[in-house]
Amino acid sequence: MEVSVKKRLLREMLFARRFEERCYEAYVERKIGGFLHLYPGEEACAHGVLEAARPGKDYVITGYRDHIHAIKCGSDPKAVMAELFGKETGCSKGRGGSMHIFDVEHRFMGGYALVGGPFPLAAGMAKAIQMKGDDDIAICFLGDAANNQGTFHESLNMAAVWKLPVLYVCENNLYGIGTRIDRSTAVIDQYKRACGYDMPAEQVDGQDVEVVYEAAKKAVDYVRSGKGPYFLELMTYRYRGHSMSDSNAYRQKDEERVWGARDPLVILRDRLVEAGEMTLDDFKDMDTEILENIENEIIKFSEESPDPNPAEVEKYVWAENDPYVHVGANGGAA
Ligand SMILES: Cc1ncc(C[n+]2csc(CCOP(=O)(O)OP(=O)(O)O)c2C)c(N)n1
Ligand SMILES: [Mg+2]
Question: What pLDDT score was predicted for residue 313?
Fold first, then answer.
């Protein structure tokens, strides 16, 4: 990987870390409400995989831990933050919040609250790509616990039967909310489960963005060449609790220390510093610039944006034209 790409990835991952930490603060300040699932610790996963693909052109879908995937696809961070603030300028017009980031222009297809929901949706996107004869691919990110849903098995089976251009990426952070993987899952190594659907699968270190990139490049090339689906498992760790309502009391401190010592930003930063490509001061300057940008541009924009107009509460509701579910002004069915 070229030095310029490594430096850009370091900047993007540092931005992702600071963006998410600022979300945490804004939640504590009650500027963000509802559910909030953060990504610190897992940055190398989204960045390594999408760097190897065509972000903004390939179709990307994930679960509720979704802000950073959208931004890497090209979504404006201001529109993502404004969405979390519930503002009209948000990418889902403030109606969705954290779990429902969506940006069709950059082919970021969401943001889903239902665990396992994106597996079949990604297969459907891949089927559409295949029918159109395009060389795009669909990339579906999901967690380790999601693989215990029936949708995982149904989707991987059909993806293999139809040789769909879909890359399934498992962000294995060892936990589904407070349940450690060995208490919920018979087969611990997730990549082995994909073998039941006769597709190539690999497990790699999800903390080293270069390792993720190399593995993803192989996977993306395979899928794009029309050979069918591929399953990539990335071993990673989230630093915070599952969501803001999780006090994170169930993990051993030793385990947190081991993973904390393999921080994806530190791994890449130290590699660049040791190679003489940057200094620690350069890194600090980068950090200061990013923090200022988040505060002066992104947070300011989100705070100053208008709330949605309550009179438009039904505006983007798909069912609004259905006479059987629409509740009219008189309170009865229209
Ligand atoms: C269909 C469904 N069942 C249960 C839940 C509750 N739930 C929310 S997140 C979660 C755990 C998912 O863990 P994992 O897939 O490993 O993703 P991670 O949060 O670790 O990124 C569960 C069970 C849900 N949202 N949807
Ligand atoms: Mg998990």
Answer: 86
Listed in sequence order, the DSSP H helices in 174-327 are 181-184, 190-194, 209-224, 253-260, 264-274, 280-293, 300-304
Q: Do 18 and 287 meet the contact criterion of CB atoms below 8 Å apart?
A: yes
Q: pLDDT, tens digit, for every residue of 79-124?
A: 999 999 999 999 999 999 999 999 999 999 999 999 999 999 999 9
Q: Would you say residue 12 lies in a domain? A: yes
Ligand closest to 35 (CA) is 1
Q: Give the Cα separation of 114 and 244 in Å (integer).
A: 18
CATH value at residue 7: 3.40.50.970
> Which of 171, 177, 233, 234 is the pocket-test mutation for ligand 1 (most atoms within 8 Å of CB)?
177
CA of 283 to the centre of ligand 1 (A): 35
Please tell me the distance from the alpha carbon of residue 55 to that of residue 39, in angstroms, as a whole number. Answer: 19
Question: pTM of the full predicted structure?
Answer: 0.95
Residue identified by tokens 């944006």 is: 305
